[in-house]
Amino acid sequence: MATIEERRGRGGKKVFRVKVRLRGQGEESATFNRLTDAKHWAAKIEDAIRESRYFPRREGAKHSLSEAIDRYKRDILPRKSYSTSLTQLGQLEWWRGALGNKAIGSVSSADISTCRDQLIQEGKSASTIIRYIAVISHLFSIAEKEWQWIKDNPVRAVTKPREPEGRLRYLSDEELSRLLNACTTSWNPQLRSLVLVALCTGMRKGELLNLQWSQVDLKSKVVVLTKTKNKTRRHIPLVTPAYNVFLELWKKRSDADQSSLFVFPRPDGRGPVDIKRPWYDAVKRAKLR
Asked: What is the pLDDT of residues 126-183, one digit of tens each?
């Protein structure tokens, strides 16, 4: 229920102070010069409360975007794959540097648009910028729906860059032979196995790098993917070349590898191997560009 008090402001001018008590959240208040404005505001807030669409302004002003990033890193990122978390950590820190000092409730669509343009000026590709925008949009969605820090997600009104269509590229038998030879002689011993499995199964890079032994059934000759881009479970049958790769990797696991969950682990076993540099090196040596 709202209460309206008549007060004297600066210079003795009459003002009207409105207070609306919020169940479990203290009270919300505002001051107006006219009684009709005070009544209109009180009625508007009370209607919103009854319809469960009122959000107190002070939550958005109380928390900075930097605080939201810290909470997102602590509570949300651990739910994602290792490679996604690693990539988004850097993206979130970029947003912290750009807007971290602002109250999360004061970050506007114009702010996000300015940051989008800044990413363009930094030379980021359209696909990269889309991913930067995606992670901050998800943060705002969580802040809106789960944390109830803000009323609306400002990213919804921001136009994203258009991602160029990917180039469709088929390798000839000769090109494929050159690529596999380059992978075989790569300084990364896992590159050839990764590429061969990718060619035989059609699995995406992220699916392969994050693949764990618990998903590989050597007896049934199948890989079960639970975290896919389309959010659906997929069963990948293993043809002979791919099956032989997994069988060989299983037999040759070192002591360090046996403590790792990943099929293609990095040296310390705590995450997937990084093949970005050896892959580009192999592609260059195979003369596929």
From this structure: 989 999 999 999 999 999 889 888 888 999 989 999 877 766 677 888 999 999 999 9
Place of tokens 């605080």: 67
Among left, alpha and beta (phi > 0; psi -120 to 50; other), residue 113 is alpha
What is the tens place of the pLDDT at every residue in 169-211?
778 889 999 999 999 999 999 999 999 999 999 898 888 998 9
Q: Which residue has the tokens 């299983």?
A: 250
Q: Are 18 and 30 in contact (CB under 8 A)?
A: yes
Residues 218, 250: contact at Cβ < 8 Å? Answer: yes
Residue in the block written with tokens 């996000």: 112
- Report the C-alpha gap between 289 and 261 in whole angstroms: 34
Other beta carbons within 10 Å of 195: 22
- Count CA within 13 A, CB hemisphere, residue 107: 36
Q: Tokens 């990413």 belong to which residue?
A: 119
What is the SS3 assignment for 43? helix
Question: What's the CA gap between 282 and 150, in Å, rounded?
Answer: 48
Q: Which of 272, 259, 269 is nearest to 207 (CA)?
A: 272
What's the rounded Cα separation, in Å, for the pair 156 and 144? 12
CA distances from 57 to 1, 102, 174, 261 (A): 18, 15, 64, 45
For the chain, what is the radius of gyration of the CA atoms? 27
Non-local (6+) Cβ contacts of 123 within 8 A are none
Q: Pull the structure tokens for residue 242.
A: 């791919």
Element (H, E) at 63: none
